[in-house]
């Protein structure tokens, strides 16, 4: 760093110290994200979608390991908003997690600045609204953390990077979908699948005229890192590129053993990156397909997304039938075997120089065991609700750690059962009272009729076992105790179970939930409250919002012109960098 850089950084850091959030010598990445409505017709029907900075999907955010990330979110919607960052661990700072148990919502026409460090993380993630069923209207975008240059990739540097969002889609508004659930109705079959916010290429007569499709432009002979994330409502999608192998390289921030797939099931909330080499002739374009899985294929034919892979020297449009999905029919073993074939590359370095396999999870004694069992949505108190262990979660009026900080009593309970109990279903604010640095086994039992995704905020966990049928003590004999993939979102098949292991070394309040948006909205979630007796958690940020029993502390948000320099520093760090440059020029 030159003299100007040193002086510039020092001025910046001094300013940050004033506002209480200087993180040493790691660089800062600043983003402004405005969430607002635009009209779009991804499936040929005009509808209101949530755009970010006028784009649908939103822009991809690119940062590097250990960067301090500052995101000023401006809510131009007509309702409250929260943005969450699935897979970003928010070390010691669940204040930035962006779910109702950790944050008060951002009111309409207000802004709030997220401030977090992507400490010791790499990989492919995304950001997305977490409340008011807004994910069904958009508001999502990619979030990529690249390696530091001092850490070698476990593969040759790709020639390019392509981010793809896939997801099922309804032409009904998110408010109408939410109202249907409130009325006790199921959402029904989606109207289609979007790839990068666009409808299907007209591959046959079932696709109407006038639908815009996504095109991925590539050069022959080059290898691209293709990052794919399922941002949909509730449908698992099989992803494939016609005539091209998908060499799996990474799953949610961890490098995998590299193996080729002709297609891969990507469940709701999951993300992967593949190395795809453009090694085919360019006689025509190629199909990129994301189609619904674990449904009646003939009835769900419309729930298929089709984009186009276009070589720069292509001689014609893609034509003919789509590449086939897996022909597993009633063979449950295919999907389970594929999921368990995704394994950690133990010798590769991730965000740190030491190999990913250095943490020998298989030799650590389990200290606590939790079983989370879900059932189909059930009426509780006259309302359709979903649950874990017989409890349908109600978010506390005041976020968990905010209530703790202000010593509020009765905001929530620390009595979530460690296993299902034989008692009537209930709605409650029950949390798991977890132990700091415990090594925990969580058995997920899906007694619902649909495949589900499970996500844990604040952590990556090891997916050690998965099967159809009932979990028993003997199931531990099938666990992968050597190279299980670590990730933050895993699938749980209907009538089956998935087992995960996780080391609870991140203090805070962390959401455990189904990612299936309908079940999540209906209450299938809880939180783990993890407190370190030595209290190494970060304090509430200076710009914390107050709500619930602490709402009287919240001051109205003023326009930027009315704020002091100190307040501007706290609200928008870009202003600080500009101020530092001006001061430098003066001195």
UniProtKB/TrEMBL annotation:
Alphabetical UniProt keywords: Cell membrane, Copper, Glycoprotein, GPI-anchor, Lipoprotein, Membrane, Metal-binding, Signal
Cofactors demanded by this protein: Cu cation
Recorded topology in the membrane: Lipid-anchor; GPI-anchor
Family: Belongs to the multicopper oxidase family.
Transcription as UniProt keyword: no
Organism of origin: Artemisia annua
SUPFAM superfamilies in UniProt: Cupredoxins (SSF49503)
Signal peptide start-end: 1-24
Every Plastocyanin-like domain range: 37-149, 161-314, 398-535
Any single Gene Ontology cellular-component annotation: plasma membrane
Record-given protein name: SKU5 similar 1
Location of this chain's protein in the cell: Cell membrane
One Pfam short name: Cu-oxidase_2
Superkingdom of this protein's organism: Eukaryota
InterPro entries: Cu-oxidase-like_N, Cu-oxidase_2nd, Cu-oxidase_C, Cu-oxidase_fam, Cupredoxin
